[in-house]
Amino acid sequence: MSAVLQNLVNQPYRHGFVTAIESDVAPKGLNEDTIRMISAKKNEPAWLLEFRLKSYQAWLEMEEPKWSNVHYPKIDFQAISYYAAPKQKPKLRSMDEVDPELLRTFEKLGVPLHERMALAGVAVDVIFDSVSVATTYKHKLAEVGIIFCSMSEAVLEHPEVVQKYLGTVVPTADNYYAALNSAVFTDGSFCFIPKGVKCPMDLSTYFRINTEESGQFERTLIIAEEGASVSYLEGCTAPAFSTNQLHAAVVELVALDNADIKYSTVQNWYAGDENGVGGVYNFVTKRGLAKGVNSRISWTQVETGSAITWKYPSVVLRGDNSVGEFYSVAVTNHHQQADTGTKMIHIGKNTRSTIVSKGISAGQSSNSYRGLVKILPTAANARNYSQCDSMLIGDLCSANTFPYIQVRNDGAKVEHEASTSKIGEDQLFYFAQRGVDAEAAVSMIINGFCKDVFRQLPMEFAVEATKLLGFKLEGSVG
Amino acid sequence: MILHDSKTLLEVRGLCATVNGTSILKGLNFIVKSGEVHAIMGPNGSGKSTFAKVLAGHTAYQITAGQMLFEGRNLLEMAPEARARAGIFLAFQYPIEIPGVGNSQFLRLAYNTLQAERGKDELDPLEFDDLVREKMGLLEMNPEFLDRSVNEGFSGGEKKRNEILQMALLEPKLAILDETDSGLDIDALRVVSKGVNHLAGKDRGIVLVTHYQRLLNYIVPDYVHVMVGGRIVRTGGKELALELEERGYDWIEAETSAEGAL
């Protein structure tokens, strides 16, 4: 790799600042008392404390999963603080009451709050460490019966809906990190679209981890009733710390008959420095239940951050004619490790799923696609199409594809395509000879590679993702 | 055309270059003035293609001695993209495929980069489409090439036409064509030559690197150079190419080594 390119690779992380806000941080460590403390701080009903304690018991008996293609030192779960909230007046009535320091942070991050938001027509629920700070547009949405608020608020104000759906898509003991999340989750977003309502704007949440040695355990639940539809956007960043931070979120989606949920993520958590020190461990369970007939759940993710990403947004296709989609771009650089993909579980008749995964590895990173397509005997006439493409930049990185296909119905059609390519010095020379510098060249090649996924993203996100990738990879070619 | 009082575009003096420690160019001298068409011929391995790539700034080659000036500017201090922006164009012998990148998108990026460099207006996709279709007409290219990925799945001849299309769009001051004629059938050769002749003019220089005299029936050079062992050992008019066609390179190599022995 040339010196110029080397320099470009080593650009600092742009979101790596810490906001000096007084935080209410729980002492490190995890036991039943910690859980009772979290539950009490949030004035939760008894059933939710039960839910947490049951999950905690399950978690204690579980083992950390070892099957993924990622390597990291053992996590000391007693060295993590399980609750961190910015100290401020409770119950904010308007944006003016939000701590100005906090607002400046979001400005730095480019979160479009205030009027910019209105222009963009996006409702944002901001999660700062573990507490939802402000939910914009709430009242406007309420007029059409949409509930969009923090999970804490939903638990208090709409307990019957939360209780009905929480843990139904991702059971408490689903996996090690889901169990941990179910025990200690502090906040997250809640979204309920009633029967027949098409959500008039994209709903958006912005997550940010601010405290060192704190874990972020959000819990998101989105329900679209019969004939409802919603597009939900999630963005994530974290400041640069030399220690590793744990992020173990659970996202559950439920789509009833003829409902449509589109969930888009741009994940840019701190990835650690160029030597692999620090960075977020991102162990996330995301799953959608396409419960009703003709329902549709679509995941689109652009994963560029985190030291380790372990994430398989999945769709359980239970309703007849239901549709599941997964569009993913995962980028790793330096010492990042990603093991990400999806699961499409076909149960209903005529169910269809599409998987498009684009993995880009640079530096000494490791990028794995892992996906399961499972066709159950009940899933007559099921179809799946999967396409997994990997791009390598440089000679020290690796890309792996682990597709699992289990078909138990003769009428199923399952297709899988895969490719591996490499950005070479000669391609860059070709661009250079036409006057185009390496940055613009890499950006164009990468965008070409990812365009099938980017075109699934809402416009603002697509623009952001394109910039993010260019920034992330510029000069990483050797 | 050889013009009196035309300015010097390219001046190469005593150029030596190596690749992976192997010496390829060994004291090469070469001058192009604006308006001129030069042909560089020579046996395989004589360093012709290396010279073309060295002019464009390919990083695989180390320059160990000599100098290269383009309009008086030191090329050795210029990155490949800076050379391209200054007006040096290389039509590649083996144009590389760039999957996923649309040809029209690529062409427009290159075009607008140079427009910006020249202080001219950049074109939006619609304006550019008009321009590129006009140029494609000249080269008898099917507009469907615009929608395909750069060079991906193109035949050898299509790739070469795509190179000439880029040259026609970018209007370089110095165009170097590295064996653009090899692998072309007679129709493609005619079309490619038409593109080159269309570009040629008093403000530009053209360097043709070729094995075959037949290209020179279509693009008539002012000078023919013979390259042997990393140096230009003989320079003549267009009739030298005919002589080479008839007699091969052996006699020149023999004369050169005899001179070397003196």
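Residues 3-473 of chain A form one domain.
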